[in-house]
Amino acid sequence: MPKQNEHQIPPSAPPSVLTDYRDWFWTLAWDNAPNIQTWALDRPDGRRRYLKLARTGRYPSLADEEARMRWARTFLPVPQVLGAGSEDETDWLLTVGLPGTSAVAASLIAEPSLLVPALARGLRRFHEAPIAECPFDFRVVHALGHVQKRVANRLIDYAEHLHPEHRHLGADSVVEELVRLAPSTEDLVVCHGDYCLPNALLQDGEVTGFVDLGELGVADRWWDLAIATWSVTWNLGPGWEDLFLQTYGIERDERRVRFYRLLYDLVS
User: Fold this and answer.
1) Which residues contact 153 (CB under 8 A, 6 or more apart)?
2) What b/e sequence results for 188-215 when a residue is b if at least 16 CB atoms lie within 10 Å of its CB, and e otherwise?
3) Integer Cα distance of 23 and 9 in angstroms
4) Burial of 148 by CB count in 10 Å (0-12 exposed, 13-18 middle, 19+ buried)?
5) For the domain bounded by 101-266, which CATH number is listed?
6) Which CA distances in Å does 117 have to 100, 129, 252, 253?
7) How does pLDDT run across 166-216, given as a tens digit for each residue?
8) Among the four 5, 135, 213, 231, which has the fewest Cβ within 10 Å?
9) Distance (Å, rounded) from C-alpha 57 to C-alpha 256?
10) Residues of the chain with CATH 3.30.200.20
11) If you average pLDDT over residues 21-41, what whole number do you get?
12) Which overall architecture, per CATH, does domain 4-96 show?
């Protein structure tokens, strides 16, 4: 009879990883199939690894994330990369698990008045990474070029990708609206690129780890602030965005919020 954990191993698990981890206990930690899955691999002694699997050709690629994670680890609490590769149309990324609890844990969401300020302080810390040393760029010019290429190559499913508040735009006017809203100046920092609740880990009331770094790069800080506040509303309900911005130490910029939320819908 097969071991219990063998039932959990996904068919797409790369053979090179199975060589070392077949006897670990596999649990599906995050499921966004068919695009991406994340598996937790555990040993009885407490060791934990995470294996992220993605279809080859997905943006951002796991190679993108690997490069950014290796760079960021010098400055920020992000996972250590153990390996990465591509096999049979599946990309994979293997990392060491970080301590902490995901911000979407029920125990944390139950106390938004404590969670929201902690998330804001965590983002402020992330933005202290040195932009002069960051080789990854997502300034407005780069971002617009990326979206225009995706539109030209018909890679955007507007019904699937666009948030309900953006769906009235459609294919004919979405890029036009994005260009119209684009800021003429940028307050540059190293941005996470997807700073939402599932991508922050907390211990003792503070953010102690960051994950999902495939879109890290130098950009206007509102690239993160717009998405972080959006995520606060999605996960905790309305009424918490002001507390996030107040704790971070910035006043709301509605035009930039609108630009970066529309951009977020279109980049991947």
Assistant:
1) none
2) bbbbbbbbbbebbbbeeeebbbbbbbbb
3) 10
4) middle
5) 3.90.1200.10
6) 17, 20, 16, 19
7) 888 877 788 899 999 999 999 999 999 999 999 999 999 999 999 999 999
8) 135
9) 30
10) 4-96
11) 91
12) 2-Layer Sandwich (3.30)
β-sheet bridge partners, residue 90: 55, 87
Q: Which of 64, 91, 194, 253 is catalytic?
A: 194
Which residues of the chain does CATH 3.90.1200.10 include?
101-266
User: How many residues in total does the chain contain?
Assistant: 268
On the CB side of 245, CA atoms within 13 Å amount to 18
Question: Tokens 């990854």 sit at which residue?
Answer: 136
- Please state the φ and ψ torsions of residue 40, each to the nearest 5 degrees: -90, 130
Joined tokens for residue 19: 């060589």
Q: What's 180-239 look like in SS3?
A: HHCCCCCCEEEECCCCCHHHEEEECCEEEEECCCCCCEEEECHHHHHHHHHHHHHHHCCC
pLDDT tens for each residue of 118-146: 999 999 999 999 999 999 999 999 999 99
Q: Is 194 a catalytic residue?
A: yes
The model's pTM is 0.93
Q: How far is CA 124 from the centre of its chain?
A: 16
